[in-house]
Amino acid sequence: MNVKDFILRLILTLISLLPIYTMTQKLHIKTWGCQMNEYDSSKMADLLNSTHGFELTENAEEADVLLLNTCSIREKAQEKVFHQLGRWKNFKKNKPNLVIGVGGCVASQEGEHIRHRAPFVDIVFGPQTLHRLPEMINRIRGDRTAPIVDISFPEIEKFDRLPEPRAEGPTAFVSIMEGCNKYCSFCVVPYTRGEEVSRPVDDILFEIAQLAAQGVREVNLLGQNVNAYRGETFDGEICSFAELLRLVAAIDGIDRLRFTTSHPIEFTDDIIEVYRDTPELVSFLHLPIQSGSDRVLTMMKRNHTALEYKAIIRKLRAVRPDIQISSDFIVGFPGETEADFEQTMKVIEQVNFDMSFSFVYSARPGTPASDLPDDVSEDEKKERLYRLQQRINNQAMQFSRAMLGTEQRILVEGPSKKDIMELTGRTETNRIVNFQGSPDMIGKFVDVKITDVYTNSLRGDVVRTEEEMGLRIVESPQSVIERTRKEDELGVGKFVVNL
């Protein structure tokens, strides 16, 4: 081939690829499961936007790449995945270049089996390999005959290769660790997300400082078991979770701090001392107990008793009397008797839980509990679950009614989902509050007097704005951009954020 023919062929090849790289590409992500999955999905979107210019779409039919971020906690999780993939298969018939990927915990658990049952799937990736998505998509587009399965556990590499965080409001999630070493007999997390790996302290603090500079005021630290956090500092020292909480609370601009999820056996006294000393740490804690029966807790391999759990709550309430507690419960675990269940109901009353995530037991393949005889009937499980949820709902309503007439400090998150003409935010104790207000309140704190109580939310009237509280006045990111642009034009100066 002479040089002229080579150049002509190269030009024709580039022209054929032009639509792919000049037209805006669409990405659709469907997410099931926990807040960690929500966090991972947001990182996938940010990553593919930075590398390929993908824009998110709610319409799966118009997408160029479809990603399913899965959860394996509940029964029939696998079948739910394949039903969804069956719907997406039809899209590929009309759009042969469509890339379909399956990620999350089901992908990690099933691996190659997903490709066997759904050969039209191009990419199978685990929670620890989502950072490799840009390369995987490029490889698939380069060779349609070579599907990719990557469900390895490359430890902290995932965090090293993600784009800088982008704030999407005054609240943000920040992952501080991955995996779990506890190996509860019912749980798949150690098998799907790997063992505990903590991010370096400086990486976490830098990410949060970046978010604070963009207007974030509340941070929720994420991990399968955050109080197991043991991250390295820049000089090789090990930082505990309690120390990390104090460091995050000290970041300028962070006014509220939450975390989820934690485990009772590592809820140490130094964490309770942070609740005593640190007003930024909110008066709300999600601390799963799963069952109130010591016999069932032993079979679950939780490694603590109901009494030890209650001792933690007692210490917490000694330093934070107003703290609200939520939990996870599994009803109908193999061998659970009516007497065991009554022990759970007793603990619910004694602790006075404000809310819960509660489910009937379903065996997860590969876990030790899946070898136990599932001897509690479905009817018994459902009846116990109903009683448990009714008890907690009644307790939650009592808490809500006690707030009637009180003033609650709300971080305004944005327009209400129920009425876009109203605003919404959360109390420190995680109650949703809707109220009338102006758009300039978004991203700021307001004091709201509670006037109405509903099943899942509260309603009230603004009695005090942030300016009237005497708190620092916060500029929105957009107002900062506009102001600095004008200052640059006038030669006045520049707005600098020290990270």
UniProtKB/TrEMBL annotation:
Pfam families hit by this protein: Radical_SAM, TRAM, UPF0004
GO molecular function: 4 iron, 4 sulfur cluster binding; metal ion binding; tRNA-2-methylthio-N(6)-dimethylallyladenosine(37) synthase activity
Enzyme's top EC category: transferase
Transmembrane feature ranges: 6-23
Cofactor binding, note field: Binds 2 [4Fe-4S] clusters. One cluster is coordinated with 3 cysteines and an exchangeable S-adenosyl-L-methionine.
Residues at which [4Fe-4S] cluster 2 binds: 180, 184, 187
Domain MTTase N-terminal: 25-142
Annotated compartments: Cytoplasm
UniProt domain Radical SAM core: residue ranges: 166-398
Keyword Magnesium: no
Residues covered by the TRAM domain: 401-464
Record keyword Ligase present: no
Domain of life: Bacteria
Catalysed conversion reaction: 2-thio-N(6)-dimethylallyladenosine(37) in tRNA + S-adenosyl-L-methionine = 2-methylsulfanyl-N(6)-dimethylallyladenosine(37) in tRNA + S-adenosyl-L-homocysteine + H(+); N(6)-dimethylallyladenosine(37) in tRNA + (sulfur carrier)-SH + AH2 + 2 S-adenosyl-L-methionine = 2-methylsulfanyl-N(6)-dimethylallyladenosine(37) in tRNA + (sulfur carrier)-H + 5'-deoxyadenosine + L-methionine + A + S-adenosyl-L-homocysteine + 2 H(+); N(6)-dimethylallyladenosine(37) in tRNA + (sulfur carrier)-SH + AH2 + S-adenosyl-L-methionine = 2-thio-N(6)-dimethylallyladenosine(37) in tRNA + (sulfur carrier)-H + 5'-deoxyadenosine + L-methionine + A + H(+)
GO cellular component, one term: cytosol
Alphabetical list of HAMAP family matching this protein: tRNA_metthiotr_MiaB
Job of this protein: Catalyzes the methylthiolation of N6-(dimethylallyl)adenosine (i(6)A), leading to the formation of 2-methylthio-N6-(dimethylallyl)adenosine (ms(2)i(6)A) at position 37 in tRNAs that read codons beginning with uridine.
Homology family: Belongs to the methylthiotransferase family. MiaB subfamily.
NCBIfam families given in the database record: miaB-methiolase, MiaB/RimO family radical SAM methylthiotransferase
Assembly notes: Monomer.
UniProt name for this protein: tRNA-2-methylthio-N(6)-dimethylallyladenosine synthase
Organism encoding this protein: Otariodibacter oris
Gene from which the chain derives: miaB
